């Protein structure tokens, strides 16, 4: 009996977690996929009706707006966060004396939840309470910063808040990558008289390609599932100006009572995630096998 326990104890310990994941993760993914092919409304129906929900989804102007917003938000968020994170990492890589303090300050926003970040930036950008009111209180009566309530600029406030929270995490990834570069190669380049900026652009940064890819995967995942930040900051408004697929799915499921539409939008979001993650996993596995 003791031999059996010794051989099977890891399986026994992991079995409850495995079963829970199987049911509550993959089981509900399968349920959502099934419902997306039905005419479910307020309550789920299980009679398959083909791709009617997807046809309705792709014909919805609000869904088109949500996808357009996702691509704009995702592109700006990923690019700005990576550029800013790289610049901060290069700055800290110069062995500044207060590196520990500065690194903590940069990383602190990542410790906050998206709800806290969205609420804080909502106060900061509120024309009647935040930045605009403060600057006007200093005597600049004509100063305006109404991005939060302006449909043409509201999406950029979401980008601003998301970059503020995530750039410190990207900085930490890049800083670890910078510190892992072979110092002998850098010293040899310096001996040859190569300028510092050229060493970074031609030697250090190209060698960090896997870290750039990892940062891209993490940021893309954050962009696709951005829900709580948008809800706390703009609520998807003004109008549908900051609506994203995640907020569209929530609205369909809990405000409109249209489970079929919510399920189909969820499956499209999962497909987008898969198109990003699967090639990355394939390249990682291929590299290990080689």
Helix content, binned percent: over 70%
- According to DSSP, the number of beta strands is 0
* H/E element order: HHHHHHHHHHHHH
Number of helices: 13
Question: If you compute it from the alpha carbons, what radius of gyration comes out, rounded to the nearest whole angstrom?
Answer: 24 Å
Structure in a nutshell:
Helices cover 73% and strands 0% of the residues. It has helices spanning 2-35, 52-58, 61-92, 99-107, 114-125, 131-137, 154-179, 183-191, 196-207, 209-224, 228-233, 245-255, 259-289. It is globular.
Provide the fold topology.
Elements: H1 2-35, H2 52-58, H3 61-92, H4 99-107, H5 114-125, H6 131-137, H7 154-179, H8 183-191, H9 196-207, H10 209-224, H11 228-233, H12 245-255, H13 259-289
Descriptive overview:
The model has no long low-confidence stretch (mean pLDDT 86). The protein is globular and about 75 Å long. The protein contains 13 helices and no strands. By secondary structure, the chain is mainly α. The two termini are 42 Å apart. The protein is 73% helix and 0% strand.
Structural features:
single chain, 290 residues, mainly alpha, 73% helix
């Amino acid at each position: 009996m003791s031999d059996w326990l010794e051989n099977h104890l890891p399986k026994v310990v992991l079995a409850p977690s495995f079963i829970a994941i199987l049911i509550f993760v993959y089981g509900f993914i399968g349920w959502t996929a099934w419902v997306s092919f039905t005419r479910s409304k307020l309550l789920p129906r299980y009679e398959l009706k083909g791709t009617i929900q997807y046809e309705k989804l792709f014909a919805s102007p609000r869904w088109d707006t949500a996808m357009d917003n996702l691509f704009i938000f995702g592109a700006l968020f990923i690019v700005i966060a990576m550029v800013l994170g790289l610049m901060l990492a290069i700055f800290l890589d110069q062995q500044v004396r207060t590196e520990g303090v500065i690194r903590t300050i940069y990383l602190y926003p990542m410790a906050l939840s998206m709800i806290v970040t969205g609420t804080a930036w909502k106060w900061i950008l509120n024309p009647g309470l935040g930045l605009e009111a403060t600057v006007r209180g200093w005597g600049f009566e004509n100063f305006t910063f109404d991005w939060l309530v302006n449909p043409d600029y509201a999406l950029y406030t979401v980008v601003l808040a998301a970059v503020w929270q995530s750039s410190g995490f990207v900085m930490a990834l890049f800083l670890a990558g910078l510190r892992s570069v072979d110092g002998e190669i850098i010293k040899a380049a310096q001996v040859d008289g190569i300028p510092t900026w050229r060493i970074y652009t031609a030697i250090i940064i190209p060698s960090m390609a896997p870290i750039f890819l990892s940062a891209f995967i993490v940021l893309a995942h954050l962009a696709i599932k951005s829900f709580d930040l948008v809800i706390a900051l703009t609520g998807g408004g003004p109008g549908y100006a900051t609506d994203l697929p995640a907020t569209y799915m929530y609205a369909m499921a809990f405000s409109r009572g249209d489970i079929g539409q919510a399920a189909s939008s969820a499956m499209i979001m999962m497909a987008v995630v898969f198109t990003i993650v699967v090639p990355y996993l394939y390249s990682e596995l291929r590299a290990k096998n080689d």
